[in-house]
Amino acid sequence: MEDDVELQRFLEAEGLTIKTILPKRRCLFATRDFIPGEVIMREEPYVCIPTSSNPLCQQCFKSDGALSKCASCNIVWYCGVECQRLDWKLHKLECRAISRLEEKWQELVTPEIRLLVKLFIRRKLQRDKQVIPTTPIDNFNLVEAMIDHQYKMEMKKLVAYAMKAEIVTRMLQQPDLDLDKAVNNFCKVSCNANAIVDIAMEPLGIGLYPVMSIINHSCLPNAILVFEGKLAVLRALVPVEKGDEVLISYIDLGRTTRHRQHDLNAKYHFTCTCPHCCKFAEINDQILDALRCKRGKCDGFFVNKDRFYSHDQKLECNKCGLVKTLEAERRAKGKIDPLCDKGKSEFFSGNFQEALSTVKRVEEATLDVFHPSSFSVMIVRNLLTKLYMKTGDIQAALECCRLITPVRERLLQRNDPVLGMHYYVRGRLEGAKGDEEDAIKYLTRAGDILRITHGTNFALVEELLSQLAKEQEGGLSGF
């Protein structure tokens, strides 16, 4: 109770308050006005773990300079002595916990397991030994207050968590930590942890931010969570007025309504009824999810007559009335997905020419099945754009990027950072091909969005503003 009072006092100083409103439970409300781009709140993670395929410093999440591995566990990286010193209170015990496992068990230690190990270590250091001080927004009571949705989870997922929990208890050997408690906290992490991403929305790690986890979801959010290293920064996307609930998106908004509904149900166990999801029956939204009709000379596409996502949906051609089920989509995607996975594997392995050849075949197959303006086609073309850029075919990259723009604009709201990054790439490509007018137009749009979503302290935003200044003076440098 005392912790709740202290948290409310802290939030009141930030212009915020917590209210309990059913069925949402806890909600975060503004007690003053915030303008677009204004920082609403900042929070350090209670615990976090880098997950990037490239080495990152565990303390600051940077990859600058020479990184060194911890000589003892041979898992954790640091950028220097200072970061290693700052992380030592936690990592000393994490390192010891890892060394308790036999080598065959160490291979099973996933980032999710390490996150939970660090969670219980931090709890012990705060509660028992008081080595790490507590604050109104940094204490284990906030973690305990998180929703777990354990009773809604499938048995196979709980069994998997039980197996991971066994590893956690072996590593920590804390008398007060039993299997049930570990499983419950795995459930909390699964539906409360945040993906830590960079400005290009590439994943860097996962972290637990107890206060940010109070914020509810909307597919039309008025705020956004971005990361400066591992520091979570909550920014206003649109004017947030006194009395408004602060809302963020838990998921990638560049997906169709059906896929957003599925993602939210699968991970967060609720059905979103925001105004954006209520557009599901509109034809423009359905095009983004549509299979092409191949009945004779029909050029229609299949739309879903049901309101929400279900596994037995009926799809009906908007022109000839032919009816199919989602099984048709699953069969179609089943033929394309293996080829798409091959292309992605080649891309991430650096085999760009091979990947380009593969993904061109994927595009052809996808266009044979899906509407040209569909989400599925856009995803393939987005990868193609990157591959054309990697292989130096700027004209092909620009043509592909131009095809993506209207789909991105249809899917995303005006101040979405994904749209901002798309405009940034489009502007650079237009500039590289000598179209100064379109280059300025799209780079300006990118700057307008990224100023709001990320501020002006990010290197990419600084570079963007510099490019615009050069353009006004007489020409972009392109790539």
Automatic annotation (TrEMBL):
Organism encoding this protein: Theobroma cacao (Cacao)
Name of the coding gene: LOC18592274
Domain (MYND-type) ranges: 57-95
Keyword Zinc: yes
Gene Ontology molecular-function annotations: zinc ion binding
Cited InterPro entries: H3K4_H4K5_MeTrfase (IPR050869), SET_dom (IPR001214), SET_dom_sf (IPR046341), TPR-like_helical_dom_sf (IPR011990), Znf_MYND (IPR002893)
Protein name, per record: Histone-lysine N-methyltransferase ASHR1
Keywords: Metal-binding, Zinc, Zinc-finger
Record-annotated SET domain positions: 14-251
Pfam families cross-referenced by the UniProt entry: SET, zf-MYND
Keyword Zinc-finger: yes
Gene3D superfamilies documented for this protein: 1.10.220.160, 6.10.140.2220, SET domain, Tetratricopeptide repeat domain
